[in-house]
Amino acid sequence: xxxxxxxxxxSLESTLQIVHAAGRGAVGAxxxxxxxxADVKVLPKLVPAxxxxxxxxxxxxCCRTSRDELIKAxxxxxxxxAFLRAPVNDPAIATTFLLREQFMVVLPATHxxxxxxxxxxxxxxxxxFLANPPASICPAVVEALQLAGIDSLTHSLxxxxxNISVDLNxxxxxxxxxxCPDYVQQISxxxxxxxxxxxxxxxxxxxxxxxxxxxxxxxxxxxxxxxRQCFPVCTQASSPSHGDSMLEGVPTLQR
Length: 255
Prior knowledge:
- The chain is an alpha/beta fold.
- It has helices at 2-23, 36-41, 43-53, 67-75, 139-147, 152-155, 164-172, 218-230; strands at residues 29-34, 58-63, 81-85, 93-108, 130-131, 157-158, 178-181, 192-196, 204-212, 235-236.
- It is elongated.
């Protein structure tokens, strides 16, 4: 109870500081690094809320296609906050949990399996597994896929487009399947089908807001405060984030 009370008081103190800073006009500017999943699930909530809560805050959105690019941009001070896939293991970066996504099977809409409501790994046996990028195929992944009956050594294709639209259209052409976080349901072309993966527990991956621990600007405080309003489950990690994805290390499209 005492710990909860202290946390509440700290949150209230932080909120009052933000309000006072905004009242003084000390708003500033911030550069946001976004990713495909955040483009779909975070920005449509965040941007209107920022304009409503802090209309004087200037912000710029820079889109990147991979976690490595976003981390590099953070460390080089090219962006102030970045929406990243967990885990983020750089000690210079603090993270705030935003949301959790389930992995889905993405396959050609013309494939017979597309008629099923959900798919198991057994269903996918013999269908080419598409990994992006090629370097993500490691021995542990090969073993896991082989145990599931998916021979990634002889049937896996790989490419490095770094563009989810290209990836989805390649799958739609009929060359195989992949695994993606569930945001792809909202951007998939009609040539692909997106189906739940029938596993228990359901494989998931986290999306977090990453920022430099040394960044104590009002602008960042404003943004994090708004994120907490948009995503009430937001929690701050006191140490580098360690994702608990069931498919950690598996070559999936994690953008």
